[in-house]
Amino acid sequence: MENKCSFCGKSIEPGTGKMFVQSDGAVSFFCSSKCENNVALGRVSRRIGWIRKKAKKTTESKPKEKVEKPKPARKPKPKSKKKTE
User: Fold this and answer.
1) For the segment 13-27, what is each residue's pLDDT rounded down to a tens digit?
2) Which of 25, 28, 58, 76 is a plausible cystine mate for 20, CB 3.0–4.6 Å?
3) What is the rounded CA–CA span in Å between residue 29 and residue 35?
4) Residue 1: what pLDDT?
5) Is residue 25 left, alpha or beta, with left meaning phi > 0 and alpha meaning psi from -120 to 50?
6) How far apart are alpha carbons 61 and 18 in whole angstroms?
7) Beta bridge partners of residue 4, listed in sequence order
8) Would you state the pLDDT for residue 47?
9) Smallest Cα–Cα separation from 31: which of 3, 73, 71, 59?
10) Which long-range contacts (CB under 8 A, 24 or more apart) does 29-36 make?
11) Cα separation of 54 and 10, whole Å?
12) Where are the domains of the chain?
């Protein structure tokens, strides 16, 4: 079972990271001490710059299905008539 960090959302490999269980039974997983300390300081992950950059990279790296739009038919350009004098 692969867990995700409760702060940054990064996937945690089995055997690594830290699990924190509160007295009310809520379980939090942390990938690093950096994430654990940020939660202890009361920081909100959506306001942290390095998390937003990481989230942006992951959304950009997902392959998007490209739908090809048909190209509009081009009208031939009218030939210009030059006046000869």
Assistant:
1) 888 888 889 899 999
2) 28
3) 9
4) 67
5) left
6) 27
7) 11
8) 73
9) 3
10) 29/3, 29/4, 29/5, 30/5, 30/6, 31/5, 32/5, 35/5, 35/6, 35/7, 35/8, 36/7
11) 9
12) 3-60
The pLDDT score that the predictor gives to residue 54 is 65
Instruction: Pinpoint the alpha helices (H) of 1-85.
Output: 33-40, 49-61
Q: What CATH number belongs to 3-60?
A: 2.30.170.20
Instruction: Kindly give the parts of the chain with pLDDT less than 70.
Output: 1, 46, 52-67, 83-85
* Residue 23 in tokens: 């007295």
d(CA 46, CA 32) in angstroms, rounded, equals 17
Nearest 5 degrees, angle CA 14-CA 6-CA 31?
Answer: 45
